[in-house]
Design brief:
Elements: H1 2-15, H2 32-36, H3 43-55, H4 63-77, H5 85-99
Length: 106
C-alpha cells in the first residue's frame, strides 16, 4: 500500500543518520525558504514536510495548510538538483498516499 511504502522510504531516510536538531519550531515554519538553511537537507526537510502533513486532521478545514505544505514541496522539487532520489521518493510516495484519503466535512 502507499502508506507502507512511505514508512519504508522514511525508515531508509532516517537510517542515513541524524544531522542535528530541527531548526523549525512548528509546522508553520516548513516552507520552501526553510529548505536552504535546513541541516541535512534535502532528506530531513522532506521528512519534516511529510510529518507536518501527517499531523493535519483529515478535514476540509485542513485544506489551506495542506496546500501550503504541498506547495512548498513542489517548489523545492522543481529546483534542479535540490532533492536527491531518496527525498524525492519519500515526497512522491506520500503524495500518492494522499490520493487515497477521503476528507471529512468540517
Amino acid at each position: 500500500s502507499p502508506r507502507t511504502r512511505v514508512r519504508r522510504v522514511a525508515r531508509r531516510l532516517l537510517q542515513a543518520g541524524d544531522d542535528g536538531e530541527d531548526p523549525i519550531e512548528d509546522d508553520d515554519g516548513v516552507t520552501a525558504a526553510s529548505f536552504d538553511g535546513y541541516p541535512g537537507a534535502p532528506r530531513r526537510w522532506a521528512l519534516r514536510v511529510v510529518e507536518a502533513v501527517d499531523r493535519l486532521p483529515l478535514a476540509l478545514s485542513s485544506e489551506r495548510p495542506l496546500s501550503r505544505l504541498l506547495g512548498a514541496a513542489e517548489l523545492v522539487a522543481r529546483r534542479p538538483g535540490a532533492l536527491d532520489g531518496a527525498a524525492a521518493a519519500c515526497l512522491a510516495a506520500h503524495g500518492v498516499g494522499l490520493l487515497s484519503l477521503r476528507f471529512e466535512p468540517a
